[in-house]
Amino acid sequence: MRDRSSPPRRFTGWHMAAILIAFFGVVIAVNMLMATMAIRSFGGTVVDNSYVASQKFNGWLEQARAQDRLGWKDDIALTKERHIRIALTGAADEPLTGSRIEALAQHPLGRAPDIALTFHGAEGLYLSEQTLPSGRWQIRFDIRHAGAQRHLLREID
Questions:
Q1: How many other β-carbons are positioned within 10 Å of the β-carbon of residue 102?
Q2: pTM of the predicted model, to two decimals?
Q3: What are the residues whose beta carbons fall under 8 Å from the beta carbon of 102, sequence distance 6 or more?
Q4: Distance CA 33, CA 23 (A)
Q5: For the range 130-134, what are the long-range contacts, defined as Cβ-Cβ under 8 Å and sequence gap of 24 or more?
Q6: How far is CA 52 from CA 47, 48, 61, in A?
Q7: What is the pLDDT of residue 9?
Q8: Taking the CB of residue 87, how many other CB atoms lie within 10 A of it?
Q9: Segment (H or E) for 150
Q10: CA atoms of 46 and 125, how far apart (whole Å)
């Protein structure tokens, strides 16, 4: 308990300096932490030259429209053993047999090496020979069937 006869404590410049230093110290520490986390989790560039990529954009749109006109449907799943299973059907819901499938599994943050996947199967149902480690993966599929091709990008957890 304070003695009432003593004068009240004054707020001085040293008090204000300590408050400012503490405030800006916290702000700078949080910014450094966020910058470090951002740099460590950045997997790299999506395209090397955004101008050149923008010039190709309309061609990519036309390729996507051509793929959609094929009417192919896909059902992609991960088995318990962590193989990729893909079921392919055509526009009339017939299985796409004899398709050639190549795929590349990429970790979205680039923390794990890419995994090339090969598939085998029949009656429109294909299974990867390789397994995927646990985690989140982006898989780029190249599917060729009867002279046509389709490119897919799917995420698997």
A1: 13
A2: 0.64
A3: 116, 117, 118, 119, 141, 142
A4: 16
A5: 130/83, 131/81, 131/82, 131/83, 132/78, 132/82, 132/83, 132/84, 132/105, 132/156, 133/82, 134/82
A6: 9, 9, 15
A7: 84
A8: 16
A9: strand 148-156
A10: 31
DSSP code, position 69: H
- Neighbouring CB atoms inside 10 A of 96's CB total 23
Q: Which of 134, 143, 136 is nearest to 86 (CA)?
A: 143
49 class by beta-carbon count within 10 Å (0-12 exposed, 13-18 middle, 19+ buried): exposed
What's the Cα-to-Cα distance from 10 to each of 3, 5, 18, 49, rounded to whole Å? 15, 15, 14, 61
- Give the HSE-up count for residue 129: Cα atoms under 13 Å, Cβ half-sphere: 7
- Tell me the per-residue pLDDT of 89-129, one tens digit each, with 9 for 90 and over: 988 889 888 889 999 999 877 678 899 999 998 888 999 99
Residues 145, 78, 42: CA angle, nearest 5 degrees: 95
Residue linked to tokens 């896909």: 74
The b/e string for 103-114 (b: 16+ C-beta within 10 A; e otherwise) is bebbbeeeeeee
- State pLDDT tens for residues 54-85: 999 999 899 889 888 888 888 999 999 999 99
